[in-house]
Automatic annotation (TrEMBL):
<dbReference type="InterPro" id="IPR036565">
    <property type="entry name" value="Mur-like_cat_sf"/>
</dbReference>
<dbReference type="GO" id="GO:0051301">
    <property type="term" value="P:cell division"/>
</dbReference>
<dbReference type="GO" id="GO:0009252">
    <property type="term" value="P:peptidoglycan biosynthetic process"/>
</dbReference>
<dbReference type="InterPro" id="IPR036615">
    <property type="entry name" value="Mur_ligase_C_dom_sf"/>
</dbReference>
<keyword id="KW-0132">Cell division</keyword>
<feature type="domain" description="Mur ligase C-terminal">
    <location>
        <begin position="279"/>
        <end position="393"/>
    </location>
</feature>
<dbReference type="GO" id="GO:0071555">
    <property type="term" value="P:cell wall organization"/>
</dbReference>
<dbReference type="GO" id="GO:0005737">
    <property type="term" value="C:cytoplasm"/>
</dbReference>
<dbReference type="InterPro" id="IPR004101">
    <property type="entry name" value="Mur_ligase_C"/>
</dbReference>
<dbReference type="GO" id="GO:0005524">
    <property type="term" value="F:ATP binding"/>
</dbReference>
<dbReference type="InterPro" id="IPR013221">
    <property type="entry name" value="Mur_ligase_cen"/>
</dbReference>
<dbReference type="InterPro" id="IPR005761">
    <property type="entry name" value="UDP-N-AcMur-Glu-dNH2Pim_ligase"/>
</dbReference>
<dbReference type="GO" id="GO:0008360">
    <property type="term" value="P:regulation of cell shape"/>
</dbReference>
<protein>
    <recommendedName>
        <fullName>UDP-N-acetylmuramoyl-L-alanyl-D-glutamate--2, 6-diaminopimelate ligase</fullName>
    </recommendedName>
</protein>
<keyword id="KW-0573">Peptidoglycan synthesis</keyword>
<comment type="similarity">
    <text>Belongs to the MurCDEF family. MurE subfamily.</text>
</comment>
<dbReference type="GO" id="GO:0016881">
    <property type="term" value="F:acid-amino acid ligase activity"/>
</dbReference>
Length: 430
């Protein structure tokens, strides 16, 4: 299927695809009666941190008394109703996206927060959605195979900022991570209210294995989120919240209540709570599928004995990253287990071999069946070890050749294998 799509892309001129996608976007908006006209629409984009920032913005708005909806890589939420995103895409297609916005309007939501990817802008999924705000987390050279170059990737992201600039909505707001120079072009766009967040605003701060402590505008705030990158996400959300006249107490309460989202540094515990006392090591599931995000996850646990379970960034794309990803696991881990991820139409063993080529010093194993790889990591864990399973997060399928989908959940499989392991440990102790 992937090969056929590539052939079609080579034969058919780009402008034909553009017209096709534009007309679909218009049709979707027409069918659902341009729902974005009747709700505040907050877009979130960037290379990393989009899902977490989307959830943080929604959480703060809700704490302030607003009813919210959100669309992200992880889930679709309309008011109190939530369901997982099983589409294998960050931003749904034009019809689904407009339908979700319409559902939010019909449910009398005040805001909808949309996670928008660069791939979505290539297919005009963001068109005919009048934006009120845009938050930009960061920008780094990822997904280049899809766009051709970093310049084209940035151009795709900038389309969202231009959409905000041309939106008819009043009181539009652009919020960027002020510490990222790659976002300078966003800050040049003509939008009346342009705000920046900076890490310096959170001084002093402490980055711990189990959370963050920081001070903002004189308030001490504690959160269960970990890593400096999450502090950046929090600051971006705070800056937007302040633009909506949300007070510091509500912001603090929302952040301290927020426990994170599935598949993002998610700690896995056994299904039987009575077994938790026997678990003397951590099992972490994270979506990290780029070199930069993988390094950030490993950095958090660098003082621990890491067992890395990783795949090869997905078949048909970014193949040059595979050796780099293996090299990062080689640098940080005490054991590297390379497994299957989303091979699509590529040879999965070949992908694993490319990842393994970056592991030159650390003991490594290639275990193609992902469940067995996770089981092996748990069996090898020692007191204080941290097993880090990356690449899929909450992805509900392993994507195989010819469009085949194998139902999957890293967290559920890890939980099942961990529970089984601890149960066996109880039997041995008896």
């Amino acid at each position: 299927m992937g090969k056929i799509k590539n052939i079609i892309k080579k034969i058919v001129p780009t402008w034909v695809f553009s017209i096709y996608h534009w007309k679909l976007a218009l049709l979707g908006a027409l069918i659902y009666r341009f729902p974005a006209r009747h709700i505040k629409v907050v877009a979130v984009t960037g290379t990393k941190g989009k899902s977490s920032t989307t959830e943080l913005v929604s959480a703060i708005l809700e704490e302030a008394g607003f009813k919210t909806a959100l669309v992200s890589t992880v889930r679709f939420k309309i008011g109190n109703e939530s369901r997982p995103n099983r589409l294998k895409m960050t931003t749904p297609g034009r019809f689904t996206l407009q339908k979700l916005i319409r559902e939010a309007v019909d449910a009398h939501c005040d805001y909808i927060v949309l996670e928008i990817s660069s791939e979505a802008t290539k297919q005009f999924r963001h068109k005919f959605i009048a934006l009120d705000a845009l938050l930009v987390t960061n920008l780094s050279p990822e997904h280049i195979e899809s766009h051709g170059s970093f310049a084209k990737y940035k151009e795709a992201k900038l389309k969202i900022a231009h959409a905000l600039a041309t939106s008819w909505k009043p009181n539009k707001v652009l919020v960027t991570n002020g510490d990222d120079p790659a976002l300078d072009d966003f800050r040049k766009i003509n939008i009346a209210t342009k705000l920046e967040s900076h890490l310096a605003e959170a001084e002093p701060h402490a980055l711990l294995v189990d959370g963050l402590f920081f001070t903002y505008a004189g308030q001490k705030i504690q959160t269960k989120l970990v890593g400096e990158f999450n502090l950046y996400n929090i600051l971006l959300a705070i800056t937007y919240a302040k633009s909506q006249n949300i007070g510091p107490d509500k912001i603090k309460q929302a952040i301290e209540k927020f426990s994170g989202i599935p598949g993002r540094l998610e700690q896995v515990t056994p299904t039987d709570p009575t077994l938790a006392r026997l678990q003397d090591f951590k099992v972490i599931v994270d979506y990290a599928h780029t070199a930069d995000s993988l390094q950030k996850v490993y950095e958090i646990y660098k003082d621990h004995k890491i067992i890395a379970v990783l795949g090869g960034t997905g078949g048909g794309r970014d193949s040059d990253r595979r050796q780099i990803m293996g090299g990062l696991a080689d640098k940080y881990a005490s054991l590297v287990i390379i497994t299957d991820e989303d091979p699509y139409d590529e040879n999965p063993e070949q992908i694993a071999t490319q990842v393994a080529s970056g592991v030159t010093h650390t003991p490594k194993e290639i275990i193609m069946e992902r469940r067995l790889a996770i089981r092996k990591a748990i069996e090898k864990a020692e007191t204080g070890s941290v097993i880090i399973i990356t690449g899929k997060g909450t992805d509900p399928y392993i994507m195989r050749a010819n469009g085949a989908k194998e139902p999957w959940s890293d967290a559920e499989v890890a939980r099942s294998e961990l529970t089984s392991f601890l149960q066996q440990k109880v039997k041995v102790d008896e």
